[in-house]
Structures are given as C-alpha cells and as structure tokens.
C-alpha cells in the first residue's frame, strides 16, 4: 500500500521504517527538513538500534515531504504519529494533533478516493471521536466511516528494542467504527502473524493508557516491596523471581530500583490522572504510583549519605539515559539524583555512552567524563542506568550505590548498597 506517516519522531520513524520493511511504500511527512534528509539518506533521525538498516534497505520505497496535503492525496492510508507532550496540568497537549487534523481534513475534501486515517499518537480515550473526527468532518465536508475511514492503532514499542517489538509484538490493537476499516487494518497487520484485537475507538485508546499505567504500577509495586525488603535484609530480586513464577503475575517488568522514566510512563500516568479527575474519579492507585516513583531517587541519595557526606566530595554517576540502549533522557532518574547531589554540595562527574550531549544542554555544569572508568575515580559511584558496558568496569575497592542492580558492581564493590536489595 501507499502510506503517509506524519511525524518523524520516535513512533513515526519506527512505524514508517517497519511498514516499508513489510513491502509498503512510505511517505514520511514532517516539518524538520534535517530529519527528512536523514531518512532519505537511510539514516535514522533517532537513536534506535536497527532503524538505519531498515531505512537503507528499503530506501527505494521511502519518500519524504513537508507537504502534508500532497502526501494525503497521493496515498491510501495516513498514520498520525505526532507528539502529544504533557500540558501544565499533566493532560495531553493536543495542538499538533489538531493542526494535522485540520490539514488532513482539507486534503480529504479535495481527494476523490477513499482515504483512511489512523491515530498512532497516544491520545486519551475520546480524543478521536471528540476532537479528531469533528475537525476532519468540518474541513472535508465528508462523514467519518462513509467519506473516509478512521482508526486508532496505539503503539507498544519500547525504545531500544522498537524494531523487534514492532515485528514480534504481543498484540496489535485496532479501534474502529466500521467493518471496512477493521478489515483494512487487519489485512495490513496479518503478515506479522500476531494476535489482532479489534475494538471501538475509545476502548483502543484506553487500552494504551491502561497498559502503560499497569506496567508503571507493577514496577512501582516492586519498588515499594523492594524498599521494604531492603529494610528487612531480603533480596527483592529473588522475591520477584519467586512471585513471577505465578503465571497469573508473570516475571516481566518486576525489576525494582530507582524507578521508571522515559517519554511514556510518567507522561501517560499523569495524563490518565488528569483525565480521571476531570471525569470525577479519584485515581488513588495512580497518584500513589507517581508519588512513590518520585521518592525512589531520594532513597539512592539517602543510602549514599549513610556512608559519606557528599559535601565537597566528587560523586560519580554512571548512566544518564532513562534506560540503556537509548539516548533519551526524558524523565530520566539521573536528573533528580544529580540535582540532589548538587544541593548537597557535591561535585558531580557523569558518564553515559550516548546521552551526554543531550544532558549537557539541560545540565551544563557537571564534569562530563570521557569514559566510564574515569567516573570510578570519584569518592562514590551511583549507578543510574544499567548499560552493558558498565559491567566491564572494575569496581573493587569502590563505594557503589546501585539503582539498577549491575552484576559486576554487586560482586566486586568494597561497599555496595542496592536501592531495593
Ligand atoms: C514504554 C512501554 O514499555 C511501551 O510499551 C510503550 O509503548 C512506551 O513506553 P519505554 O518507555 O521505551 O516503553 O521503556 P520501558 O522499557 O518500558 O521502560 C520504562 C522505564 O521503566 C525505564 O526507566 C526503565 O528503567 C523502567 N523499568 C522497566 C523498571 O524500573 N523496571 C522494570 O522492570 C522495567
């Protein structure tokens, strides 16, 4: 099929490249011409393993443009993959969604063929029916489901493993109003040979939020029990290995530590909280998830202070990315940890294999080390991201506070404290 993908950020680049790998012709639509140039040159605009390869390999089926109207006119499907960043009150900022909906609507008005619009951007339940469809119908003077198709198709990709996640996802979720659109998307995804769950637009939108909120809650539960285990001298990793053997629970996303970050969990849980409140629901569990998650980095610094007063000392921080295999620092636990260390009067020396350039922009006044081993010269070392390469370091004789359970540090450090073990 001939498909437009609007947005060259995380969701757009991965979705477009993977659909091209499935044999479709993709038109990437964006405003940032630098990113479009990179895509055309077979280079990924984001740090994501395997994406360069897909863009290069499928280059002959990949086009780019800044002209959204033309892209809609020339294709059969349009995936909306623009950002929905958090607003001041935690709810989602829909300005990009609205803007592209107006333009798509205008294009639909002059397009004689049947076109289907699929929302991949994470939007709260009701957004497609209450915001997107009214704009599309007003601009195009056509009716959704009659003059054009409309669907919700949330993404469940994890940064760092997004390409593999696309092809081996546990399920594809499709939200629709009519059978014709359902069949179109079911046919699109059938070659993946994975379960396809088709439902209503609102339910599909809610599945995305409920999934992320559940995973954030599961991690937070592991952290709360982990904090308790730490006090009792019990290893929470062993506890959750045992708990996870119950097939009703399962062992994934049970790693306790300094909490979750990233572009999705914090943003989506906060957006769901804001939406629940405006619907008259008190989201007690979700409020507790955010509060506990914010407390976890404090525990790391408190554990450090048990062994050393950070004032006028150099404290090393290993890892700045919100997790390994990404340069993404959004909501990384490194930020609150480093802020607390600076408040304590410490000199902070940091290293991350790929996230230092981005971090320097928000925190220029740190010592950025040239290698991970340079950080080990510090008076104490805090492990914030579990990059594989940190397992190659020699931790003997060091004071280490570990937020991510790094095997080698746990074995070798002279003084070792795990946040939840
Ligand atoms: C997440 C969802 O997993 C994905 O389905 C959704 O589409 C986008 O949001 P992502 O943010 O890329 O993906 O990363 P993920 O691997 O889920 O990790 C999120 C955060 O949770 C990281 O900070 C990670 O360190 C933390 N985490 C994860 C834990 O603390 N413990 C765990 O057991 C798992």
Basic shape: globular
* Major sheet size, sense and barrel closure: 8 strands, mixed
Question: Which residues sit in consecutive blocks of at least 5 with pLDDT less than 50?
Answer: none
Task: Tell me the number of strands.
Answer: 14
What is the tally of helical segments?
16
* Helical/strand content category: alpha/beta
User: What is the helix/strand order?
Assistant: EHEHHEHEHEHEHEHEHHHHEHEHEHEEHE
Mean pLDDT: 97
Q: What does this 3D model show about the protein?
A:
By secondary structure, the protein is of the alpha/beta class. Helix content is 44%, strand content 14%. It contains 16 helices and 14 strands. The strands form 2 sheets. Strands 3-2-1-4-5-6-7-8 form an 8-stranded mixed β-sheet, with helices on both faces. A 6-stranded parallel β-sheet has the order 11-10-9-12-13-14. Helix 1 (10-21) crosses helix 3 and helix 5 packs parallel to helix 6. The radius of gyration is 23 Å and the shape is globular. It starts with a strand and ends with a strand. It binds uridine-5'-diphosphate-xylopyranose.
